[in-house]
Write a structure and sequence with these properties.
Blueprint: E1 8-10, E2 25-27, H1 28-41, H2 67-84, E3 88-97, E4 104-113, E5 119-127
Antiparallel strand pairs: 1-2, 3-4, 4-5
């Protein structure tokens, strides 16, 4: 592989190779994108052996969406990525409500892979359930 220095890990979500039953792997930029999604999916405190791993956006599930909440969510995503994914530089994080679905936010992340200087976008849907 040309970019094998970027890393390799279990595919997310975890799956098996149909041909031989071994764990499916992802590598390079795909591995990085999946690692970012794992960070966003994981609420802080969810992992017993690493309670500070994850992203604090889950703390905002019952918040009323406004400019201040969006700014706090953007900062939470940026901080989590800075701490847990050293292979990237976060260029921007934008939290916007999706107009067609009430309670759904679209978190758009622009990032650069440090070792290759390639830029990527990831859009993460996040659902609010206002209390």
């Amino acid at each position: 592989m040309a970019n094998s220095f970027l890393g390799k890990g279990w595919k997310f979500p975890v799956s098996l190779e149909p041909s031989n039953g071994t764990f499916a792997l992802s590598a390079d930029e795909t591995d990085i994108r999946e690692a970012i999604r794992i960070i966003l999916f994981t609420a802080k405190g969810e992992r017993v052996m690493r309670p500070d791993f994850g992203c604090g956006i889950h703390d905002y599930v019952f918040e009323t969406m406004g400019v201040a909440t969006a700014a706090r969510m953007e900062a939470s995503v940026r901080d989590a990525l800075m701490r847990w994914e050293p292979r990237i530089e976060t260029l921007s994080v934008d939290v916007q409500p999706e107009r067609s679905t009430a309670g759904k936010l679209m978190i758009t992340i622009r990032y650069r892979v440090r070792s290759t200087n390639n830029e990527f976008n990831l859009v993460y849907p996040f659902y609010l359930r206002e209390g």
